[in-house]
Amino acid sequence: MNILLGIDFGTGGCKVTAITPDGALVGEASVEYATHHDHPGWSEQEPQDWWKATCAALRKLADQGVDLGDVAALALDGSTHNAVLLDADWRPVRRTIMWTDQRATAECEALRSEGARPLGERIFARCFQMPAPTWTLPQLMWLKAHEPEALARTEHVLFVKDYVRHLLTGKAATDYIEAQGTLLWDVSGSAADSGASGRWDPDLLALAGLRPEAMPRIVAPTAVVGGVSAAAATSTGLRAGTPVVCGSSDSAVEDYGAGAVEPGDLILKLATAGNVNSMTAEPHPHPKTLTYGHIVPGMWYSVSATNAAALCMRWLRDAFYGDLHRKENLYALVDAEASSSPVGAGGVMFHPYLQGERCPYWDPALRASFTGVSISSTRGDFARALMEGVAFSLRDCYRTLEEMRLPVKRIFLIGGGARSKLWSEIVANVFDCAVAVPSPGDASFGAALLAGTGIGLFHDVKDAVSRCLRIHRTITPDPETAAAYAKLFARYRAVHDALAPVYAAP
Known about the structure:
Largest sheet: 6 strands, mixed
Shape: globular
Helix content: 25-40%
CATH superfamily of the largest domain: ATPase, nucleotide binding domain
Distance between the termini: 60 Å
Radius of gyration: 22 Å
């Protein structure tokens, strides 16, 4: 039993990664699942789709020759803020509202405006976050107002990875970092331990329409929660009794798995969403950022995030390359066409607000746009403009961290988009900084390291990273290209400023 398995539930799909205890990749597989957008701004997923994707991804891994009976332990991670509401028999009450959902705008406005000292400010003091539609609390308040019967049927609450782990083991739990993603977990007195000694806040639970006993117990990300049940072994191919480690939120686990384990490390993420995450020795709450405890005990990280990054590339794939959708090397074609377009994409510029925007604007009314299109614009121009626009959005996010004067010592580029040589080069030039691309360095790899730590194969979480992580390549910016992108970034911001009032108008 010499395999460590990590299972990641991103916003768009499930990925499994199998490694040896020295970090060598044994195999990896992924399966997408659907997000339902029944109304503008809505994003929901079916919990059973995560389980189906897990089983399918494990079958793919087995088809590669990976013996799932050799798995010594596994851990899970998943996108956060997503409450899975379960009835007394642990069955989902409804689809899960995802963190990208924007329906709870009115609830957030009420939280920010009520009282002499708005409730939103009091929530910020307890939870280190300002209310926004991405958080679980406002989403539950929306359900309380519009679907009270769903909350009335809710006896248990889990989150994405925890729901799947419950199906694997029959045990219910979550970790303290996941809890911080709800706006229901009071971390105000637990700065020294990354929020681990916080508590489910009874006032905020009442505001959400939940009973305290519905909330899961809290464990460390490296805690063994249970073993694979006989029924789950039959469905997945895993060995019954295989230890299952809790894991944590995908953002925390991927930062950790990429090697960002020291204060001053910075993560740039090109996944479904895009993140700029700064590792710190203590929490730095800010109204325009997200603040979470780190996998490394005692550390924290500040997040400035865009709603859509690689999601934009998937949208481009479906909208512009529909006739080639099933072409095996489709993304290589997209890269080749984008590479044929010059810096600045022949004047075409893209703003990636497909689902409103979080940092630095926190504006759910924003919408994506291509501007500067001419009769000579090519499909390659649109592809390159999309890559540049997402990079500009990340740079826009970083402005808030600059204002906070958070130090930067090393930069790591992660996510599926980092596999693109061109996109990686664009990001390095937009930031005008050298960036390191770790290997594998993604969330499922980080989860595998947590699995090994949980069963004692590593001394601690930092030991696991030092023994297993490798840097795939380092990208150095070109001064001339970086200077060109600095000018284009100013234009990017000007276009945002011009269009934002248009989208805000009734």
